Prior knowledge:
Four copies of one chain form a homotetramer.
Chain A: H1 4-7, H2 19-22, E1 28-31, E2 50-55, E3 58-61, E4 70-74, E5 77-81, E6 91-94, E7 104-106, H3 135-151, E8 154-158, H4 166-177, E9 183-187, H5 188-200, E10 202-203, E11 206-207, H6 218-231, H7 234-240, H8 247-254, E12 258-261, H9 277-290, E13 293-297, H10 300-309, E14 313-315, E15 321-323, E16 325-330, H11 333-341, E17 348-351, H12 354-365
Parallel strand pairs in A: 8-9, 8-13, 9-12, 13-16, 16-17
Antiparallel strand pairs in A: 1-6, 2-3, 2-7, 4-5, 10-11, 14-15
Helix pairs in contact in A: 4-8, 4-12, 5-6, 6-7
Amino acid sequence: xxxxxxxxxxxxxxxxxxxxxxxxxxxxxxxxxxxxxxxxxxxxxxxxxxxxxxxxxxxxxxxxxxxxxxxxxxxxxxxxxxxxxxxxxxxxxxxxxxxxxxxxxxxxxxxxxxxxxxxxxxxxxxxxxxxxxxxxxxxxxxxxxxxxxxxxxxxxxxxxxxxxxxxxxxxxxxxxxxxxxxxxxxxxxxxxxxxxxxxxxxxxxxxxxxxxxxxxxxxxxxxxxxxxxxxxxxxxxxxxxxxxxxxxxxxxxxxxxxxxxxxxxxxxxxxxxxxxxxxxxxxxxxxxxxxxxxxxxxxxxxxxxxxxxxxxxxxxxxxxxxxxxxxxxxxxxxxxxxxxxxxxxxxxxxxxxxxxxxxxxxxxxxxx
Amino acid sequence: xxxxxxxxxxxxxxxxxxxxxxxxxxxxxxxxxxxxxxxxxxxxxxxxxxxxxxxxxxxxxxxxxxxxxxxxxxxxxxxxxxxxxxxxxxxxxxxxxxxxxxxxxxxxxxxxxxxxxxxxxxxxxxxxxxxxxxxxxxxxxxxxxxxxxxxxxxxxxxxxxxxxxxxxxxxxxxxxxxxxxxxxxxxxxxxxxxxxxxxxxxxxxxxxxxxxxxxxxxxxxxxxxxxxxxxxxxxxxxxxxxxxxxxxxxxxxxxxxxxxxxxxxxxxxxxxxxxxxxxxxxxxxxxxxxxxxxxxxxxxxxxxxxxxxxxxxxxxxxxxxxxxxxxxxxxxxxxxxxxxxxxxxxxxxxxxxxxxxxxxxxxxxxxx
Amino acid sequence: xxxxxxxxxxxxxxxxxxxxxxxxxxxxxxxxxxxxxxxxxxxxxxxxxxxxxxxxxxxxxxxxxxxxxxxxxxxxxxxxxxxxxxxxxxxxxxxxxxxxxxxxxxxxxxxxxxxxxxxxxxxxxxxxxxxxxxxxxxxxxxxxxxxxxxxxxxxxxxxxxxxxxxxxxxxxxxxxxxxxxxxxxxxxxxxxxxxxxxxxxxxxxxxxxxxxxxxxxxxxxxxxxxxxxxxxxxxxxxxxxxxxxxxxxxxxxxxxxxxxxxxxxxxxxxxxxxxxxxxxxxxxxxxxxxxxxxxxxxxxxxxxxxxxxxxxxxxxxxxxxxxxxxxxxxxxxxxxxxxxxxxxxxxxxxxxxxxxxxxxxxxxxxxx
Amino acid sequence: xxxxxxxxxxxxxxxxxxxxxxxxxxxxxxxxxxxxxxxxxxxxxxxxxxxxxxxxxxxxxxxxxxxxxxxxxxxxxxxxxxxxxxxxxxxxxxxxxxxxxxxxxxxxxxxxxxxxxxxxxxxxxxxxxxxxxxxxxxxxxxxxxxxxxxxxxxxxxxxxxxxxxxxxxxxxxxxxxxxxxxxxxxxxxxxxxxxxxxxxxxxxxxxxxxxxxxxxxxxxxxxxxxxxxxxxxxxxxxxxxxxxxxxxxxxxxxxxxxxxxxxxxxxxxxxxxxxxxxxxxxxxxxxxxxxxxxxxxxxxxxxxxxxxxxxxxxxxxxxxxxxxxxxxxxxxxxxxxxxxxxxxxxxxxxxxxxxxxxxxxxxxxxxx
Lengths: 368, 368, 368, 368
């Protein structure tokens, strides 16, 4: 706790006494015309802290925000809801200005004040390229993870590449078993490849250490899917097949919750995979609401999906507001930029190989 | 028809009189132990022509094949079924050798014989890089498309980038309206961006011709989604909002069927989007079964998903076998290679910008 | 001429009557301490229009500017010189402020005024991605090239990929033969591959149309180098070997000057290649000084090198100032961004395949 | 020495007693027709072991081979010479078959025999992608480097990115100071950025740890160049400017030779940079001849240039033949594939961030 301020910047709320805000009107609502339909001129949320004026200088901060959702204002409380989940008659906040003139204020620079401690970090879009110096990013990441292991909620969003390599798979297992992962979001492929490695030592038939291809090895992939389906699920399969390693094994053993979202690319799928993509979104958002740090690795689909859901801030139980850190690890500037362009301005790109990233992270953290 | 052989290579069936095949045993089946579970030692299909020995020299060709599925052999007929769709007791072909010794033969070189007409084309993996000479690939593609417009089934698999540019969107509309598209597979984003362009002239708020960003333009995206949801669907929205251009407009007007598959990245979604990813797979496979040419553009997710479903051959109504052409258009070797590595050996990569590709294709085809 | 203003934005000189500039001191010079060494506090040039105050309100515009060079002020004239070409005692302008307070003023917004005609174009860094709508960029490019064919100086900077494909090589030949290229900058490889194609129909042994690899085809590359070396040069080789197609052929026939700059990757080299990299820079800058439009295609090395040399403006014979257009055509955002990051802010990226770009460009221009 | 065979595969010479080789004719030579010109039908070398038949079963192995060069056979000795360095009358080996029928034999599978120890490693092109499991590649690399530190010759080919990050720059310094680098090949930029970091703590004005941009920081780059030029060279500059860190500092202090090859992109250049690209090739080849392991990091230009020069084998003082290991570290499959396509078949790609690679390598090696 002592070095909290070294790691987690403090939040400066808006100064509501300035004339523009002091004189702001009360925010207006309009009823949703139908289930899953929002009224004209609806206000769409960003992932920044947004305040709604209730009158007489009372401004309410939207909790658990999410990009491209709407604000329901009911009984003096704000709820951030995806348009598809709005019900007919719900009171939706309307107005598209963001500077208070319709009673809505978006506070972009709340974490700015202590920028001397973390210069530049929150003041502009961090668009790393492969030539950006990353030493400091790593050092900060280690600090953040150590802090949030005990006092935050770390969500990993993983692409399948992490399970293809012996060392990176072990490292990810180590991170989970040592408390550095409070929830895992991934797809069918990550789980399948990881279980194939646990069962056969391969990923799509290629030995995850020696790189050699096993004869008929491509059946390993299909066989593990079939076995898990026959046994009814991952947890039972781990037990019955006596699997003792890997990412899914670690999640099951340490009771770290995971969401496996379905995609049209899937084989199988494993029984745990959520077939309905919007139910999968809902399941992912459960963790997005709690996240204090997100590390999205080697998956454009899941990274962007999760990035859309995560607010840039978190209201803590004691009412304090802290930033949510979002790291995206990928080989291409394109993926990272795409996320930033979609509005996830706080996303910090680390351009490197996913396997190396995980291995090095764990090598550093485990020494402590 | 006269130049058929110039464009479409003839198929040479296996010589079943050679000893190894003449002496092959009858293929074996085993009952599926449960719904969605296949028996041990099940045979997984490739996308190549596969023959199953019924006895006494009778070999049956699997129709409408699909990668990583199983063969149900029932009443002297073969059906290729995804494991998840197998029902308890279904007779699943078993055996993992591919050379006849278990009564299963995979015929990889069926389109080889006339390789003088199309040298090299089917003899090795065509892994184009950005420096590969593509003139001939384009010339062949034009011929194939002219042929298959009238005598084949052309499926387009489109990523959203195609709708972001004025000329490429118009070109795609031209291709559809002139018979060069028999079915369209895409995601929510393609349809949303295209309809936004029809309604507001923008893509995610950026003018699709001038590149300028409209004030509050990001609301265009959310507003068109909301309008279509309120109106109940794409077809009605086109009518009520008097939209008169674009890809979805062309599909609706010319009654070209489309499948919009859901993903966890979606906003909205539009009412036509299939939320369940495995139902979406089933809907896509309806077109994969018929496809004679596939053009997959600027979408890794949908390209790989569709590539998994498409056989490398097509059994025509008159019993003749022809190849299915599969073009993947992308900016990165990684995407094209990934598809090839997944077994879609016939996929030919064209490494270029998706917008340029569509514009040039249409500029060439429309002159005829 | 009539549509000049549609294509070429007018230039608005600085308003030297504003107090900060009206009161600016006279610019200072210091003598270079040695050959190739500049004095402390030297002023380094950008590629923007820069003015130096001579006193009494007389401001002098640097002609033929170049990034990271110095200003020599002598006899009331300014010369922009690379530090390595400075001689001991040369009067080098000193001062690092850019707003006039040391008598130096960098004028960044000179082409801003008519931004209504070309909205946004010059107002921010044009960082295209592969998903940027390019229709308008192409339309503008066609206009610019038609104008500059007759009234400008178009420089092409070409990577070797352009010569690897039959159609793109023909298209580039067409562009040169029809006046769309006033100078060509490239490396040994472009010329070698192009001459190999003229002699053998191959590029590194691969047929530039059919894509088939010739037996022992890799010797074609080495043989053409050896033949040209034996014959003493490209011009003689074209004549003696009766070559009748391609890029070098077109340059020779239409007397378009070319610079072939050496690199450590070269085979051969051809006799015309300039071995000394700084002499090569000098030869390239001859054309950079004259350029009104630059098109750099598929070469990071030569694009960045040439980008460093080209000013963002051109002082025409009648004293008017016009912008220099700089297009960079590449497959990766990384290359384009790197150029922009190095200060070539006016560079417009077109993210596509080099071969497609050339073919389409010529298909459009030749119809006129 | 004890574990030599674990790390360095043994070499199996060709079996010259097989009829095709036992009956091979004597290799023929033809005189070079002019300086820098080779005779028709000249034999071009690969980077594999090549043997020339002198008669009566005496086969001579080409030492210090190099791709795309020629063999001079004189006085019973073979010399591998670049065509540009051939002098009129030199006796050049002619013949283009590689199987002995013209007295020339290329031995591709010499390191095959012990493939059980290193399965697959030398049996096919190692084309890693970003999803390849690299754990084993790293483990082998550590072993190779420990072995070759004492008993080999390790050449690093470095792009500038390595100097942009505080930790990777320190790690590279550690590797040099601890004997893991016997020669360094790079360009002007690597040296300039490294010296800028030593002098100002920045790379192109960006702090190499905090990532913040210094005011007027872009002058740091130009100032260090000017200072080194004024002081006459890197060694003196390090002394006079009291620089105490970095890559160039480590090379100077430990007397590790370096070659800085000029390019048309250079600023400056520093006095040590070799302006003539072919003289630079010659200087690089001095180290290529001795190399037993090459690590080429984040530079396409220098990697391919050096890859062209390095044989796949090394004849050791005691006559034994060992493989030369060549690792190419880059972010894009394109660069790695390009090198492999150019014939450097033994190149093993490691797809990752250059900075991470160096940091992790040193973290592992320094613990020993």
